């Protein structure tokens, strides 16, 4: 009898807590169903951003403050940024953002044996891209720049960047945009926002579900020559669930001179624009930062080398668009994407 009485008393104590838990759950579900999705858009890093998130409050000012911090740390176009000071060989201490991006970049450089390299900036500028402009260099000029290009020629000691050669310059454009996407995503998550999509210049991270209460669907552009970036034709649509996605391709950023087409992706080993069959590389990973870096890496590698690399990097999912031997456009995607590609119809 005493045991039964004790059990009844225990339930009397537990019932109020269970009721509170049930009511709280109902309140949260109801609040989530009525909380609106807010859309913010604007310009950053020389491109457009589009951010959608479920919130009672418009956070655009806070989001732009986060992006401004990334710009202040990593933009070579910002004359007052930390990376500009590093490139000018000023005695400057880097911030946590710079440190995180630098360390990630060095890790990817090691993994790709230098196909990804943030010291390639002088060559990018030499070929008419980047934040300085020259056109059609000769081989002697290319060779002279290769002397101080190479990720092993720079390192981070404490909070300071150390260079073997003061002429070495850094350009994190191939990873910073993805990092900016992640930074905004982390900010939204820190505000308790569970459902969001952050996109900057085609680089994306998602969390939770869209306003349709379904996983986010993100388009992969067709690789059509379009330097104005107004083409919106899609090759396919991928369901993105709590992941980052980035695309790199030479079909938008290029120029013609004397009848020859020059791609913006520079091979850091040779010093020349890449010439191979891979038209665009889309990478899906746990973070947009990682996806951004590897998308660039694969555009340097080319189709065959990238496939070989992926054999030992199963954590990366890819969608490649390439030209076959007959010049026809073909598609390759990782087996992990088979059930995540929903087509454009």
Question: What would the keywords be for this entry?
Answer:
about 350 residues, alpha+beta, two-stranded antiparallel ribbon
Describe this structure in words.
The chain is an alpha+beta fold and 345 residues long. 36% of the residues lie in helices and 23% in strands. The protein has nine helices and 14 strands. The chain has helices at residues 2-34, 60-74, 82-87, 96-111, 121-126, 139-146, 173-190, 288-301, 303-310, and strands at 37-44, 47-54, 154-157, 160-163, 196-200, 203-207, 216-221, 234-240, 244-249, 254-257, 260-263, 278-285, 317-323, 329-333. It has an eight-stranded antiparallel beta sheet. The chain has a two-stranded antiparallel sheet with strand order 3-4. Strand 10 and strand 11 (260-263) form a beta hairpin. Helix 4 (96-111) runs parallel beside helix 8 and helix 8 crosses helix 9 (303-310). The radius of gyration is 24 Å and the shape is globular. 38% of the residues are buried. The model is unreliable at 253-263 (pLDDT under 50).
Largest sheet: 8 strands, antiparallel
Q: How many extended strands?
A: 14
What's the overall geometry?
globular
Strand order of the largest sheet: 1-2-5-6-9-12-13-14
Q: Spans with pLDDT under 50 lasting ≥5 residues?
A: 253-263
For the termini, the CA-CA separation is 68 Å
Structural class: alpha+beta
Mean pLDDT: 87
Determine the number of helices (DSSP H or I, runs of at least 4 residues).
9
Instruction: Name the beta content range.
Output: 15-25%
Q: Bin the helical content.
A: 25-40%
Assembly type: single chain
What's the gyration radius in Å? 24 Å
> Helix and strand string, N-terminal first?
HEEHHHHHEEHEEEEEEEEHHEE
